[in-house]
Design a protein that fits this description.
The protein is mainly alpha-helical. It has 3 helices and no strands.
């Protein structure tokens, strides 16, 4: 029974230059990244459209029928969730690996 030769340790230079045993240090997850980028952007777009429709519905209405406190908070909520979705999509786009 022959012993296998010891594996060469990979250094950072080997990984960067692809000279060592590790030919692909990062997995190819482009399809997953593209899906999450697209879903984040589409969700943000849907939130922006919903926010616009919500404010268009309220435009010109009597203020006595609505609590200004809740209208303002709902509007801020839409804006914050939109920002989170756009930041998520942008982060996934910048950090995708191939």
């Amino acid at each position: 029974m022959a012993l296998d030769p010891p594996l060469k340790e990979s250094s950072a230079v080997d990984i960067i230059n692809h000279d060592g045993p590790c030919k692909h240090p990062f997995p190819n997850r482009t399809n997953v990244s593209l899906l999450t980028i697209t879903l984040g952007f589409v969700l943000a777009l849907l939130l922006a459209i919903t926010h616009h429709l919500f404010l268009s519905y309220l435009h010109g209405r009597d203020i006595g029928n609505f609590s200004q406190f809740w209208v303002k908070n709902a509007s801020n909520g839409f804006a914050n969730v939109f920002s989170i979705c756009m930041a998520y999509a942008a982060t996934r786009a910048l950090l995708q690996t191939k």
